[in-house]
Amino acid sequence: MEMKKCEFCKKEMPKQENTCPHCGEEQPLMGCIYAVYALLALFIIGAFKSCFFG
Ligand SMILES: [Zn+2]
Fold first, then answer.
1. Which of 3, 25, 28 is closest to 14 using CA atoms?
2. Distance from the CA of 43 to the center of ligand 1, in angstroms?
């Protein structure tokens, strides 16, 4: 089983778990969220460009 460190209590927890079994905090998924925002921003910029500059 792969392990990761809890973002809050720094104890080891199973990688597939989203909630820490030690402190009960939900782990942030920042990497995924930023990737989605970056793609969304690129898509919106692309749409605006094609709107204004043909
Ligand atoms: Zn924890």
1. 3
2. 36
Beta bridge partners of 26: 19
pLDDT in tens, 1-54: 899 999 999 999 999 899 999 999 999 876 667 788 899 999 999 999 888 876
Q: Which amino acid is at 15?
A: K
Enter the pTM of the model: 0.53
Ligand 1 (ion): residues with CB under 5 Å are 6, 8-9, 20, 22-23
In contact, 10 and 4? CB cutoff 8 Å: no
On whether the CB atoms of residues 11 and 24 are closer than 8 A, the answer is no
DSSP H or E run through 40:
helix 30-52
